[in-house]
Automatic annotation (TrEMBL):
This is Peroxisome assembly protein 12. The gene is LOC117642516. Residues 25-250 form the Pex N-terminal domain. It is a multi-pass membrane protein. Keywords: Membrane, Metal-binding, Peroxisome, Protein transport, Transmembrane, Transmembrane helix, Transport, Zinc, Zinc-finger. The keyword Transmembrane applies.
Length: 334
């Protein structure tokens, strides 16, 4: 019993440095924007075929992230980012040895890695949309719809503030050595990060390649483990590419656009001549002018909002579009 307790204590107290913790958190936050850029690339190449990926990106990413994190939690005892940095999750309950997480801790870990970020994103989208509608004067002015909207906006603001403050407190406690967890999610799940043990491969990559070259490769358990290891390692190495893309994009956005030459104005398109001064949906003068950035056309806010909720495409060009692509236009004061 003493040996088991000593083994558990040594594992739990073998905490990674704050730099490794921040690095894996950064990789986790980088993965979703990188995936979104990949989706946007395919949508731009073929909007008709891949437009649904843009419309349902949050749901598609939720499924993909759920499968990915579930695999890593089951076989590596940690998330994708944690495994990439050689970390694993250790249950803080007494008497439980490191290894596979218990059912409760596994489910809570999966929830905070996948479902919780999705819920926060959806709450933020609703909150921003309701605030914009309130500012533009198209939101309900009384009754339970207004009460419900105001309640959701306040709930999202309080949740965001509470979670960020709790995260800061956990980081400070982790730095001071008073806590084994650095985030509220780990504290709720009662798990901590620790260094993962070195893996022992039954069949090395070199041996597998020699077997393939000699024609003696068989789908044995050791070889299939190696194939799985090759796939997962390739996925993990792609994280370097993801971080490079993020760095490259940040460097590009730092360029001072005022130092670039001013291009000639584009010619007036047929859509602009056809709908000049009119909303392409209701064919009346604009009310609360709103630009749809994917097509450059101006609509009434109520018209384009209703259309995007139903179809998530531009009504004229049929390009995929969301509420995030709307830009409010304020007429010049005369």
């Amino acid at each position: 019993m003493a040996e088991r307790g000593a083994h558990l204590t040594a594992t739990v107290l073998n905490k990674p440095s704050i730099f490794e913790v921040v690095a894996q958190d950064t990789l986790t936050a980088t993965f979703k924007p990188a995936a979104k850029r990949v989706v946007q690339f395919f949508v731009a190449r073929n909007p008709e075929r891949y437009g649904w990926l843009s419309q349902w990106f949050e749901e598609v990413y939720l499924v993909f992230n759920g499968v990915l994190q579930s695999h890593y939690l089951s076989y590596n005892g940690g998330s994708f980012a944690e495994t990439f940095y050689g970390l694993q999750r250790v249950c803080l309950k007494a008497g439980i040895l490191p290894g596979k997480l218990p059912r409760r801790e596994w489910l809570l870990s999966l929830f905070f890695l996948t479902a919780f970020p999705y819920i926060r994103t959806k709450l933020e989208e609703l909150s921003v949309r309701y605030q914009l509608e309130e500012a533009d004067g198209v939101a309900p002015q009384n009754g339970w719809p207004k009460t419900g909207r105001d309640t959701l906006i306040k709930f999202h603001q309080m949740l965001h503030l509470f979670w960020e403050l709790w995260t800061l407190v956990e980081y400070l406690r982790y730095l001071s050595g008073r806590s084994n967890t650095h985030s509220p999610a780990l504290a709720i799940a009662r798990v901590a990060l620790s260094y993962a043990p070195d893996e022992e491969n039954d069949c090395s990559w070199t041996q597998m390649w020699q077997a393939i070259s000699s024609g003696s490769f068989r789908a044995t358990i050791p070889s299939m483990k190696t194939v799985g290891s090759v796939f997962t390692r390739g996925l993990e190495l792609s994280a370097f590419f993801i971080q490079f893309l993020q760095w490259w994009h940040s460097e590009q956005t730092r360029t001072d656009i005022t130092a670039l030459p001013v291009p000639d104005p584009p010619p007036i398109g047929e859509h602009a001549e056809r709908f000049g001064g009119l909303c392409p949906i209701c064919m009346n003068p604009w009310k609360v002018e709103t630009l749809l950035s994917v097509s450059g056309l101006v609509f009434c806010y109520r018209c384009i909002r209703t259309h995007l909720i139903k179809t998530s495409t531009c009504p004229v060009t049929h390009y995929p579009a969301t509420m995030e692509d709307l830009v409010r236009i304020y007429p010049a004061q005369s």
